[in-house]
Design a protein that fits this description.
Double Stranded RNA Binding Domain, 192 residues, single chain, SHC Adaptor Protein, 3-stranded antiparallel beta sheet, 2 domains, alpha+beta, 4-stranded mixed beta sheet, 5 helices, 7 strands
Length: 192
Amino acid sequence: MALEIEIFAKNMEVTDRVSEYVNKKVSKLDKFLGNIDETRVDLAYLKSARNAADRQVAQITIRGKGFILRSEERADDLFAAIDAAVDKIERQIKRFKGKRNRGRGDGFNTKEMMTQAEIAMEAAEEEFEDEPVIARRKQFTLIPMDEKEAIEQMKLLGHEDFFVFYNVNTSAINVLYHRRDGTYGLIEPQVG
């Protein structure tokens, strides 16, 4: 079964050449991970990027039963950004398969415990008006995991800043965040 690839563009037009190139490169992911249900490629041209080398953006998201993997790369050339994003997601697939096959040591393997929730972090432009505007609402399912699994999921999804998860050890919702010094912080909210 051939991998179906959805291509979306922002501030640019997807030419036949670009479409063929994306299909050729991304369809190879199927041989690394056979149970991919959805493949989405987002291409964008960011004319407001400070650095000209960051204007072409390629983001690849693959979903399947028990996993969501995402990679995003930027370059001054769209084809270079696509190549880099494909390389990055191939590394993520290999890492994911290794983690899934190793297991957790508690009788459940990681494949069974992986979250199907996607936390899409999009920077919203702040509007200084009388009333704040909620530009987007997201809902997702929280699957219980421990702190180490949350760090792995955060890395696999490519979330650089923070990750919300249900901590199986404390039976509470926690927020894991990446600190400037390279370590992680954990927020354990309490109702006051």
